[in-house]
Amino acid sequence: MQGVKCVVFNDEYMTCMWGNQEDQPAANYSLYYWYQHQPAVTECQRYLQHNGINTGCWFSHSEIKLFQTFRVHVNASHGSRTQVIPTYDMKLQDLVKPDPPVNLTLQNMSNHQLQLSWHTPYPRQQCVEHAVRYRSNKDTDWTVHGVNGQLFSFPSVDEEKKYTFQVRSKINQYCGSTQLWSEWSVPVYWGNTMAHNSTGEPLPRYWVRTVLIPVVSGVVLLVLVVMLVRMERVWVVFMPQVPNPSKTFDELFNTHKGNFQEWAGVPKDMVESFTPNYSESICHVSELLPKEGQEPVTDSWAPLGPRSGPLPLKKDIGGL
């Protein structure tokens, strides 16, 4: 079985792992640790497990003491048998692995020069050194330069090429002795006299695709909506809709059953004032044929009752 390997990640936490997680023998593993000048032995408080078997231990920032000799002891118990995993003294300042740099920025200087800057997340920046690697789209191998600060000047660029830059960090010789480099940073690009985003796409094209096209599309859509509204108004002016009276008189026929006075709200006393409240007797008029030698006589009945005798009707023939 392999020994215990510890790594301090950016001075924030530490992990100590043992064995191989894939073929770790089934056993009960226990880790104990202490520092040289603090002989008190402490068992691991937070075990890391794989398939229910302890395979490592996680240490918080408060449990890490740099520049002190760190010692661990791991027991593997299986039934009545106990096996001790071989360990050795460790200096934690030599086991620090910083986080990769962030915020990489390229600035175009005069005479076709580039200046690359970045920020390191390691809390003690004076203890970190960096390495910059770059290559163009026409190169197959990377070119690597060591840098002590957080600036790198690229002497000359070919505007017809596209360049890729990355940076990584490790603890320098003044704060430790280690070969644990951080991971390479997110790449930054430069080419064709224009910067690129982290995906390698030229920034002008990137802004056209992500900003200009959506804005222009929104403006065109707004113009079309305004034109549609105005065309609808013009259509209403030149082609007005014919009103439908059925909806207007729907209440008259459905609710008031055709009663216009009730639908129109005419007062009942006004309606009754137009109703006749008198009666008139019927008057019959008849004409009697004259006998020979007599003038025509008309028999009539007045509304007040019958007369006592016929009234002769004289015709003024001379007046005709």
Automatic annotation (TrEMBL):
Cellular localization per UniProt: Membrane
Entries under PROSITE patterns matching the protein: FN3 (PS50853), HEMATOPO_REC_S_F1 (PS01355)
An example Gene Ontology molecular-function term: cytokine receptor activity
Major localization class: membrane
Chain ranges of the Fibronectin type-III domain: 100-193
UniProt-listed Gene3D superfamilies: Immunoglobulins (2.60.40.10)
Membrane protein topology class: Single-pass type I membrane protein
Transmembrane segments: 206-229
InterPro entries (UniProt xref): CRLF2-like_D2, FN3_dom, FN3_sf, Hempt_rcpt_S_F1_CS, Ig-like_fold, TSLPR_D1
Keywords on record: Disulfide bond, Glycoprotein, Membrane, Receptor, Signal, Transmembrane, Transmembrane helix
Assigned protein family: Belongs to the type I cytokine receptor family. Type 5 subfamily.
PANTHER family the record matches: CYTOKINE RECEPTOR, INTERLEUKIN 2 RECEPTOR SUBUNIT GAMMA
Protein name as catalogued: Cytokine receptor common subunit gamma isoform B
